[in-house]
Amino acid sequence: MSRHRIPAVFIRGGTSKGVFFHGRDLPDPGPVRDSVFLNVIGSPDPYQRQLNGMGGGISSLSKAVIIESSAREDADIDFTFAQVAVDRPEVVYTNTCGNLSSAVGPFAVDERLVEPVDGEARVRVYNTNTSKIYHACFNVEDGQAVETGSFEIPGVAGTGAKIKLDFLDPGGAVTGNLLPSGATVDELTVPGLGVIEASFVDATNAIIFIDANAVGRDATEQPDALEADKEFMAKLDEIRRLGGVQMGMADRPEDVGLGSPKIALVAAPEKFKTLTGETIHPAQHDIMVRVVSMGRIHRAVTLTTSMCLATACQIEGSIPHRVAQHCMATSQGDKNGTRIGNPSGVLPVQADVGRLKDGTWHAEHVTVYRTQRRLMEGWVYPV
To answer: How far is CA 359 from the centre of its chain?
Structure first.
C-alpha cells in the first residue's frame, strides 16, 4: 500500500513557522484542500499541542502557505496564507501573515519560480488574501537566497540575513478602508464594562486598538499572565466581536471570524521585562502592545498588527497616537520608525502616512525587516 504524499517545505519566517506548498501540488481551493492543511498541521487538537502534525500548538506555529507564479503584470508571485486553527477544524483566509511574507521571496528564488540573479533580489508578491502587493528585497548568492547574517529580530534566537519588506498601499486590506468606520475613535458599549473607546484601523490587517488602562491593564503583562484570566480573555473577545460588527465585517457578533479583526491593548512606554527576562526601559520604545491572535496572546506581536499600529500612531486622534503622541515626531525622519514594545522585545516599523487633498488619511507604504530560514524540505503525508 502506497501512502499519499505531497511535496512541501517547512520554513521559519520572522516569528512564525509554516508549511509551504506549490499550488500545483494541492487540491483545488475548498474543503478537500482545507482538510489537507488541517491534517498536515495536526488540527483540531483539544490538547492544543498539534502533536500529530507539523504545528506547534499556538497560532504563530499553525500556518500553511500556497505559492504560485503570478499572471499579474505588477507581481512575480501569488501568495495565499492559510491560518489553521489549533483546537477546531477551521482554516482562515481572511487576512495575511506578515511574518511568513518574509519567506515567500526566498522560497520563490530557491524553487526557481523567479530567475535567480546573484546580488540583491526584489520579488514582487501579490497576496491573494488582501489583494495587496508587497516587495521583498534580499541577497542571493550562488542562485540561492542568503540566510546567514548578523541581523536579529525580537522573538527569534540567533541571527540571520536581513530581508526588507515594503507593503504598498496597505490601507483597507480587509475592510476596504484604512479607517473602516470613517472615524479615528469609536465607542463600544460592552456589557459589564459600559462604554469604552476603540480605534478601528485596517493597514495590512484589521485591528481594534484599545487603551490597556480602559480594561484594567497596562500592556506590560506577560502573555501567560493575561491568558490565565479566562474571564478577561472572554471579555476581550466580546469587545473584538462587537468591534467587528461596527467595522462592517459581520452583521452579528457571533458571525465575526476568529482570525480578523484582531484586538490589541496599547499603552504609553513603561519599563517591562521580555520573555527572556531582559529589561526594556521607556526610552527604548514608543508604544507598548499586547495582541490577541486566534484567541491567544501573541508571544511577540503579529507583523500585520505592528504595521497597522505604526500606521495608527501617525493618525492624529487615534488611540495609539493619543497614548504615544511623540510617535509622530520619532517616526518622521527617523530611519528606525515607530519602536513597538512587545513581549519579546522592541520592533521598529516604518510607516509613510499622510492626508490626501480631501483630508482623508492614507498609508503610502509600510516597511519592516525580518529574517527567514528554510528548515526542512521533502514530503508531508496527509491521511
So the answer is: 28
CA triple 218-156-75, angle to 5 deg: 100
When divided into structural domains, the chain yields a total of 2
Amino acid at residue number 382:
P
3-state SS, residue 25 = helix
> Is the residue at 199 inside a domain?
yes
**Domain, as residue range, for 55:** 6-174+371-380
Rounded to 10 deg, the angle between the 98-110 and 303-312 helix axes is: 120
Q: Assess contact for 344 and 245: CB atoms under 8 A.
A: no
DSSP secondary structure string for all residues of 341-380 = EETTEEEEEEEEEEE-TTS-EEEEEEEEEE-EEEEEEEEE
Q: What is the CATH number of the domain that holds 54?
A: 3.10.310.10
Same domain, 233 and 170: no
pTM of the model: 0.94
pLDDT digits (tens, 9 = 90+) for 94-131: 999 999 999 999 999 999 999 989 999 999 999 999 99
CA 80, chain centre distance (Å): 14
Whole-number Å distance between alpha carbons of 300 and 296: 11
